[in-house]
Design a protein that fits this description.
Layout: E1 4-9, E2 18-23, E3 29-31, H1 38-49, E4 60-62, H2 68-71, E5 83-86, H3 91-94, H4 98-115, H5 119-127, E6 143-144, E7 150-153, E8 156-162, E9 171-174, E10 179-183, H6 209-221, E11 227-230, H7 239-260, E12 266-267, H8 268-275, H9 284-300, E13 305-307, E14 314-316
Parallel strand pairs: 3-4, 4-5, 5-6, 10-11
Antiparallel strand pairs: 1-2, 2-3, 7-8, 8-9, 9-10, 12-14, 13-14
Helix pairs in contact: 4-5, 6-7, 7-9, 8-9
Length: 322
């Protein structure tokens, strides 16, 4: 697909630089824009200039998912005459209002409590806002993109594939010749974390993110792709083999967690410490998200039973019932 240029933008996160893409042509389009830092905004402007474009030339911005390293720079770039297009669930993160931050913190503190996080860690997480202040709010959105929609980028048409799991708002964009913009749904060098998010509003229960993510990978595996342009790292060829390896990795880790659940009743937090014994405090939410995802898989397969009647959800083998 001609007219595609990768823009590598710095981030303050451990994942390193984020890839944005500019598609040149009649309707110049950006796919993702980087985080809300001056360094990322400057890099975006500079790299657009290398292909003869300014911010004012951009017709449309498509956000692959509402994580701050992919959409945050929209908060710094001013009211440029862009059409901003996202999946509807991105509004959970991009909408404004102080109450939305309070609702988000309440949702995630509730999740951590259900995981069995000890009191001091729970209070510390609540004090630091769980990193939710990194998500800029009040971002204007002009168009919602859903499964099967077609959106123009440059001189090309891209078809939207809804691929939840890493984020509830995650979309991939399929162009001509089997080229896929995958966001973080498929990365070459790391497996994407299936992060805990609410089903709908912040007052709802949580999604089963890992089962959703694995279903999204299977969908991508069955697409006739020639090349994948991801949100981080190098482009991907041979996506089918990579996805098969990822699915095998998830099955093996699921079985490992099942082996941890023997005679005792256990919590997400206890299992997380066994799965990731060297986990740093700032990575705790990621570890808990991944751990509960595997428990969701095991519960769906009938291999474990969850008891959510108390403030802390516990898990055990079915034969321990009664």
């Amino acid at each position: 697909m001609p007219g595609v240029r990768r823009l590598m933008l710095p981030t303050p996160y451990a994942v390193g630089p984020v890839n944005a893409y500019v598609v040149t042509g009649e309707e110049p389009t950006l796919i993702d824009v980087g985080p809300a830092t001056p360094e990322a905004a400057d890099a975006l402007v500079s790299q657009l200039g290398q292909v003869g474009l300014t911010l004012a030339n951009i017709r449309r911005v498509i956000i692959t998912h509402a994580h701050p390293d992919h959409y945050g720079a929209l908060a710094l770039l001013g009211q440029v005459n862009w059409e901003v297009a996202v999946h509807p669930l991105a509004s959970l993160w991009m909408a404004g209002g102080e109450d939305s931050l309070e609702a988000r913190v309440s949702f995630y503190v509730g999740f951590l409590r259900q995981c069995g996080l000890p009191g001091e860690l729970l209070r510390a997480s609540q004090r630091d806002g769980l990193g939710l202040r990194d998500y800029p709010r009040g971002i204007p959105v002009h168009r919602f993109l859903q499964e099967g929609d077609v959106v123009r980028a440059g001189d090309h048409l891209l078809r939207v594939h809804y691929t939840p799991g890493h984020a509830s708002s995650a979309i991939c964009l399929l162009g001509s010749g089997g080229l896929l913009f995958s966001g973080d749904t498929l990365l070459a060098h790391i497996s994407s974390n299936a992060l805990v998010e609410p089903v709908g509003s912040w007052r709802d229960g949580r999604r089963r993110s890992l089962p959703e993510y694995l279903a999204s990978l299977v969908r991508l595996q069955n697409l006739p792709l020639k090349k994948v342009l991801p949100g981080h790292g190098d482009e991907i060829e041979g996506h089918g083999q990579l996805i098969a390896e990822r699915l095998r990795f998830y099955r093996e880790r699921r079985d490992r967690i099942l082996g941890f659940i023997q005679a005792e009743v256990t919590t997400v937090y206890e299992l997380c410490l066994r799965l990731f014994p060297s986990l740093k405090a700032e990575q705790l939410f990621l570890g808990l998200s991944e751990t509960v995802g595997y428990l969701d898989l095991l519960e769906a397969d009938g291999l474990i039973v969850a008891d959510a009647t108390g403030p802390v959800t516990t898990y055990r083998r079915p034969e321990l019932h009664g």
